[in-house]
Design brief:
heterodimer, A: about 270 residues, alpha/beta, Rossmann fold, 10 helices, about 35% helix, B: about 80 residues, alpha+beta, Ubiquitin-like (UB roll), 5-stranded mixed beta sheet
Chain lengths: ~270, ~80
């Protein structure tokens, strides 16, 4: 691939890194990454993925920009209130880096369409805001054989993990077999969330996706990273495959996507 | 003495992020959960993963003196 002069300048701080170089930057420009949710996690993740020159970014979000989003969803702004989040995210990305081809899905993905959408991408990022979608994403990524970079938040705490069961690593269900009972884990809307925490966790997801594209370093597979902003502590817990996982083990019972009922008060 | 760390909704339900406990020798993770549930009546049954010294444990994992046990529920926020 021949870089334009503008690309050589734009990506010069990457290209000079021995772990990236021209070849790595070419991999980034050829990569297709899908981000579910242009919200708290999706906003910073998308902006860094776009800045890095990920060639194709898919964005799915069925919501519109709301004033209460702007405390953390930094890809949007005041003038975009009421606009589809996926379209607002696309506008910001186009202004940041014209190299990126952005594909938007202005809808909530369901069991009926999610596998078809994910099929076109190399790596999937989960920035969703509810458990039914998190389980749907996990199962769909397993069936499609795609690595899933998962991020989630609760008040001042966040979790990051890479699930890659196709390559012998655990999936989300190996850690949490079923969604929690309704009402046990409050959403961000009910519980509150530190805005800048979304930046920390979303950017970690972007870092993991970029590492996977480059094939450099050690991704967070077989690990769960927990960040506590109040203690400013990172804890990396080793996690293993569940030998009786209902999705990814030899004794799996889940053979198709499951639609869990939406939580009562989700955002 | 062991250290128990609660994350997410568990620290809210149990009203603490960290506590120290004396446990009998050869206690398992299952024994520890029973002790915690007796002490914290609002502690949910799950889901959560339990890590002993930063490695995911099973119900049969033996907990030794000076171990650190983390109880981690999933988060949904994004």
């Amino acid at each position: 691939m021949d870089f334009t002069e503008e690309q050589i300048e734009r990506y010069s701080r990457h290209i000079i890194l021995p772990e990236v170089g021209g070849k790595g930057q070419e991999k980034l420009l050829n990569a297709k990454v899908f981000v579910l949710g242009a919200g708290g996690l999706g906003s910073p993740a998308l902006m860094y993925l776009a800045a890095a020159g990920i060639g194709t970014l898919g964005i799915a979000d069925g919501d519109h920009v709301d004033l209460s989003n702007l405390q953390r969803q930094i890809i949007h702004n005041n003038e975009r209130i009421g606009m589809h989040k996926a379209l607002s995210a696309k506008k910001t990305i186009n202004e940041l880096n014209p190299d990126v081809n952005v594909i938007t899905y202005e809808e909530r993905l369901t069991a009926d369409n999610i596998r078809e959408v994910l099929r076109d991408y190399d790596i999937i990022l989960d920035g969703s805001d509810n458990f039914p979608t998190r389980f749907l994403m996990n199962d769909a990524c397993f069936f499609e054989g795609k690595p899933l970079v998962s991020g989630s938040m609760f008040r001042f705490e966040g979790q990051v993990a890479v699930f890659d069961p196709t390559n012998g690593e655990p999936c989300y269900r190996c850690l949490y077999p079923e969604p929690p009972p309704k009402g046990l884990v409050p959403s961000c809307q009910e519980a509150g969330v530190l805005g800048a925490l979304a930046g920390v966790i979303g950017v970690l997801q972007a870092v993991e996706a970029i590492k996977i594209v480059l094939g450099k370093g050690k991704p967070l597979t077989g690990s769960l990273l927990i960040f506590d902003a109040l203690d400013m502590s990172f804890r990396k817990v080793k996690v293993g495959k569940d030998p009786v996982c209902a999705l990814c083990s030899d004794t799996a019972t889940i053979k198709e996507l499951i639609t869990y009922e939406a939580e009562v008060c989700e955002i | 003495m062991i250290k128990v760390l609660f994350f997410g909704i568990l620290s809210t339900k149990c009203k603490t992020k960290e506590l120290e406990l004396d446990i009998t020798s050869a206690a398992t993770v299952k024994d520890l959960i029973a002790i915690l549930k007796e002490r914290f009546s609002d502690m949910p049954d799950g889901p959560f993963i339990i890590a002993v010294n930063e490695t995911q444990a099973t119900l049969d994992t033996i907990i030794n003196d000076n171990d650190e046990v983390a109880v981690m529920p999933p988060f949904s926020g994004g």
